[in-house]
Design goal:
With about 200 residues, the chain is an alpha/beta fold. It is built from 5 helices and 7 strands. It has helices at about 35-45, 85-100, 120-130, 150-165, 185-195; strands at about 5-10, 25-30, 60-65, 70-75, 105-115, 135-140, 175. It has a 7-stranded mixed sheet, sandwiched between helices. Strand 5, helix 3 and strand 6 (about 135-140) form a beta-alpha-beta unit. The protein is globular. Bound molecules: guanosine-5'-triphosphate (GTP) and magnesium ion. Guanosine-5'-triphosphate (GTP) binds near residues 53, 142 and 143.
């Protein structure tokens, strides 16, 4: 799929404020600083479309972007960022939970994971919660340009091992880098295929 247009639509503080759910939607979620906003810019080819920062906690709202006039990409705040106040963290948690469980046009949630790290507890807990809520998700390993070639297979094997204790199969996963555009074609193909299943 070629991206011909990518436009910022709106930022919402809660599910009820989000745009009308009349288009297929894909959201990026994961811990602060994992690279959610960067991935949106990489996929759309529009630098600066989603705001990025080297300090975690940059994205604080539910941001909607309209792609090719046909489908939506959503940039969400990171979960589990220690430096924002506990109140703010709970507020984010509630907002994210409401969004992922209540957004009727959400086709797939992409859970972003830092490819350099072995499985992290907050991510595993979050994915368990998604599975319990029966929310469809894929895993997206980020910053693959920064991971040692020998480390990546080890980290993925560790996910497989831990997750196979709870689930029958590992969810579909993508290897990406916003610096090199690794994974772009695969992700866009997946979205293109999924768009066909959208029913208003
Ligand atoms: P919050 O909005 O704070 O939750 O963060 P985020 O997940 O949106 O992360 P963001 O895209 O703002 O990126 C965080 C930092 O990681 C920035 O300094 C990016 O330049 C860097 N980064 C993101 N993706 C990549 C990547 O694929 N490779 C490398 N090397 N750095 C990346
Ligand atoms: Mg962000």
């Amino acid at each position: 799929m070629k991206i011909t247009s990518a436009t910022y639509i709106t930022s919402s503080t809660k599910l009820l404020q989000c745009p009308k759910p009349d288009k297929p939607e894909y959201a990026f979620i994961g811990r602060s600083n994992v690279g959610k906003s960067s991935l949106i810019n990489m996929l759309t080819g529009v630098r600066g479309l989603a705001r990025i920062s080297s300090s975690p906690g940059k994205t604080q709202l539910i941001n909607h972007f309209l792609i090719n006039e046909k489908w939506m990409l959503v940039d969400l705040p990171g979960y589990g960022y220690a430096k924002v106040s506990k109140e703010k963290r709970n507020e984010f948690g509630k907002m994210i939970r409401n969004y992922v469980s209540g957004r009727e046009n959400l086709m797939c949630l992409f859970v972003l994971l830092d490819s350099r790290l072995p499985p992290q507890k907050p991510d595993l807990e979050f994915m368990t919660e998604l599975a319990e809520l029966q929310i469809a998700f894929c895993m997206v390993f980020t910053k693959c340009d920064k991971v040692a070639a020998s480390q990546l297979p080890k980290n993925i094997a560790a996910y497989k091992k831990i997750m196979s204790e709870e689930w029958e199969a590992l969810p579909k996963y993508f290897l990406t880098s916003s610096n090199t555009a690794k994974g772009k074609e695969e992700l866009l193909k997946f979205i293109d295929d999924s768009n066909k299943y959208f029913e208003k």
